[in-house]
Design brief:
Length: 785
């Protein structure tokens, strides 16, 4: 290994790595644009792609040259410098692949950017934002030498249950919005040359049932993963679309999940991996296991799992024994190896890629793992404008839910502000409380000391710094000559101080949170750290307006204290600066709810999570989850899907739906989904249009939405489905026409008898909307082909 290019050093026999080529980086920072603030551009040059068919051929020829042990090396996970590594084949130039999370920024290392979570960024309803943010995350993975990003999350969990501890890592419970963003995120990831791994496949809608919560290392005791009991129609119409779009976008890898699919572990489900993913969706990449999700050798290999990540080791020597016994055929091992190598070649990595420059979790300069020595170079590969971008991204994702007495933006008459709550404060440490922010609970609940900018577990990314609300508000106060006072503890012992302060200010800002973590689903939908009681006490004592800021990765029931509310999600490291800019009116809030907030916990669909053994979860509601459940059952939400206020006002008019054929042009990998009639399943057949006008006084953004109702013959369908959205920035008085293309699949339902997509007969209804419940425009038509 040449010293000039060696970025990590270890016993070569352990992983068989010889040498690595280095891709230089350059800064290409796009200019800030006022009307379209997110314009994608790459800071690091992408690898040179290779046509997929050529890559498959090159991979097959490599496989022909490989020994049995070398094929087992490629398909089996190993310990190494990364979160996971595969074995290598040095004599053929095949390195140990480096795998790393995650969708909020690269995990386990330093000098990286902590971006807003997927759950938060989707609240922007902004395709350009999702594209650029994903590209930036991928660039940082690439610069650290990662081959495969374990992300983005493309529907596992989708968000069936509001209690699921990992909902904050994913996009949204709506399959249309989730699939649109999943396509963009996969394509943006791979535009950099990084291999995207769509996860978690699939029906992974709750965490395990365990004897106690995870410890500070994520360890769990006496756990049993959930059994997702679901029917075919629900799978095809609700839980599969995001993975179908991931395949269409050309995803190189898919991760099988922990849960059982009906009665079979997901990573050994022949129906899920072979029949649906590889045949029906025509997925050409490889399926890899989640960590510890493998439960067998021959069964998993024959069912379609191509590679196992460590640390369960059902492949390797066990797979070798299964081959000798004839339980797995040699042809299957060859296919597994070819599938693993194909995206590595197709995305250009085989022709030049960086070596890992970091070590998993440990930030020491020299790290020894199982006798192997690794160098941690602490490289900083962030773009110069990374901080500014994160702030702008966070600004576009804050959702103004209620603006009581028009208290926001903060006027010049407000001179004295009180800030309350531990969530406004600095966290104890940037790394929080252990590996991946797995915070040990107190009295059965997680206690996060300080502002919450990201959740815990696989999706966590360590920030290089964090701007809490109190820092940004104090700085703003100094600049404007304001008095910013504070009580940053939620302890009732502080109530006498809170009472005195609240009586003396003109505005009270209460910052509260819910910290969600992988492996531990929520017990209720309340705030952490006595947050609900804190809000009620401050509201009772405050001499002025009350504004509540919520940092959470899921819904919060707020009927006990409903006041002015901003839902900030998990906004990443620039949290405080983004919040201050919105509070003081530098930026108009424009986020929209990508899930439903109920008035009562019991309003959510019943039996949506199991906490006992055996944890069999029956998806009896079919496709009616989130807002579709509320619509179907006639339940009034507190804040509906698609809802969000701005500092301006917008009007929709002139809804039209015209027949307009546009052949599909964005498919990277064609699926084999069966459908009735002519035209491709992803061809656009109709285009809906609506005018949106800013009738207020502030330059702001609105998200016009299109909802569709199927003909009355489809009795099992919820009342409405999202079928279009766009984010538009308009100056006062400005008007624009927004288009919503309607593809054949968008108009279709799944026929379980014929096993195909078809467009039902009868009149469709389309709604031009501000949200799923604010539907001012309506038109009906019969679809003609």
């Amino acid at each position: 290994m040449r010293a000039s290019s060696a970025l990590w050093v270890f016993n070569a026999l352990a992983l068989g790595v010889s040498d690595y080529s280095v891709v230089a980086t350059q800064d290409v920072t796009p200019p800030l644009q006022a009307q379209a603030p997110f314009a994608a551009g790459l800071a690091t040059p992408p690898a040179t792609p290779v046509p997929w068919a050529v890559a498959q051929d090159r991979a097959a020829k490599l496989v022909e040259k490989m020994t049995l042990e070398e094929k087992l090396n490629v398909t089996s996970g190993r310990l190494g410098p990364c979160q996971a590594n595969s074995g290598s084949v040095p004599r053929l130039g095949i390195p140990s692949f480096c795998y790393n999370d995650g969708p909020a920024g690269i995990r386990h290392t330093d000098f990286v950017t902590q971006y807003p979570s997927q759950f938060t960024t989707v609240q922007s309803f902004d395709r350009k934002l999702i594209q650029e943010l994903t590209e930036r995350i991928s660039e940082e993975h690439k610069a650290k030498g990662v081959n495969v990003e374990l992300g983005p999350l493309t529907g596992g969990p989708l968000g069936r249950s509001p209690y699921t501890g990992r909902n904050w890592e994913a996009f949204t419970p709506d399959p249309y919005l989730s699939s649109q963003m999943s396509y963009i995120a996969i394509k943006a990831t791979q535009s950099t040359g990084l291999i995207a791994c769509a996860k978690h496949y699939f029906l992974y809608e709750q965490g395990p049932v365990c004897n106690g919560p995870p410890d500070g290392h994520g360890g769990r005791k006496d756990c049993q993963d959930a059994w997702s009991m679901v029917d075919d129609k629900t799978v095809k119409e609700l839980y599969l679309p995001s993975f179908a779009e991931a395949v269409r976008a050309g995803a190189g890898a898919v991760m099988c999940s922990y849960n059982r699919i009906n009665d079979t572990p997901a990573c050994q489900s022949d129906d899920a991996m072979n029949r649906i993913l590889k045949k029906e969706l025509n997925f050409q990449g490889y399926v890899l296991s989640d960590f510890g999700a493998t439960h067998s050798t021959a069964e998993s290999a024959n069912a379609g799992m191509d590679q196992e990540l460590p640390r369960t080791y059902w492949y390797g020597d066990k797979l070798k024994d299964a081959l000798k016994k004839g339980e797995v055929k040699q042809e299957r091992l060859d296919e597994m190896t070819r599938r693993v190598l194909t995206p590595w070649i197709a995305l250009g990595q085989a022709d030049g890629w960086r070596s890992p420059s970091y070590t998993w979790w440990n930030l020491d300069d020299v790290v020894v793992i199982d006798g192997m020595t690794f160098l941690n170079l602490h490289e900083d590969n962030r773009r110069p404008d990374a901080n500014d971008f994160v702030r702008r991204a966070a600004e576009q994702t804050h959702v103004l839910l209620k603006n009581e007495e028009d208290a926001l933006p903060i006027s010049n008459e407000i001179r004295r502000i009180g800030v309350f709550g531990s969530d406004a404060d600095y966290p104890s440490t940037i790394a929080g409380c252990g590996e991946d922010l797995f915070c040990p609970p107190e009295e059965g609940r997680f206690r996060w000391n300080g502002t919450v900018t990201v959740g815990g577990g696989s999706g966590a990314a360590f920030a290089t710094y964090i701007v809490p609300p109190i820092e940004a508000l104090s700085l703003r106060g100094r600049r404007k000559g304001l008095r910013i006072d504070q009580v940053l503890r939620n302890d009732p012992a502080q109530y006498p101080v809170i009472e005195k302060l609240a009586h003396s200010v003109q505005m009270c800002i209460v910052s509260v949170s819910v910290f969600l973590v992988e492996g531990w689903d929520r017990d209720n939908l309340k705030l952490d750290n006595n947050g609900d009681e804190l809000i009620k006490y401050v509201a009772d004592q405050c001499a002025g307006d009350v504004v509540v800021v919520i940092h959470a990765g899921g819904p919060v029931v707020m009927e006990e204290w409903i006041k002015g509310v901003i839902f900030a999600g998990y906004p990443g490291q620039e949290s405080g600066n983004a919040l201050a800019n919105i509070l003081f009116g530098d930026v108009s809030p424009s986020g929209k709810m990508a899930f439903t907030i109920a008035k009562r916990e019991k309003d959510y669909l019943p039996d949506n999570i199991m906490r006992h053994t055996p944890p069999k979860v029956y998806f009896k509601e079919g496709v009616a989850i989130d807002y579709k459940w509320f619509d179907k059952e006639g339940i009034a939400p507190r804040f509906e899907f698609g809802y969000g206020l701005t500092y301006s006002k917008f009007k929709l008019s002139d809804l039209r739906v015209d027949k307009e054929y546009r052949p599909v042009r964005d498919t990277v990998q064609q699926t084999n989904e069966k459908h009735k009639g002519k035209y491709d399943l992803y061809d656009t057949l109709y285009v809906a249009r609506v005018k949106v006008k800013n009738v207020g006084k502030v330059h702001a953004a609105e998200v016009p939405q299109l909802y569709m109702s199927y003909p009355k013959s489809e009795k099992d369908q919820p009342p409405r489905h999202l079928r279009g959205f766009d984010k538009v920035f308009l100056r006062p008085g400005e008007e624009r026409v927004v288009e919503f293309p309607l593809r054949k699949k968008d108009l279709s339902v799944w026929d379980v008898v014929r096993q195909e997509w078809h467009i039902p007969e009868g009149e469709f209804t389309f709604w031009g909307a501000h949200s799923s419940r604010n539907l001012p425009l309506k038109t009906e038509l019969k679809i003609e082909l």
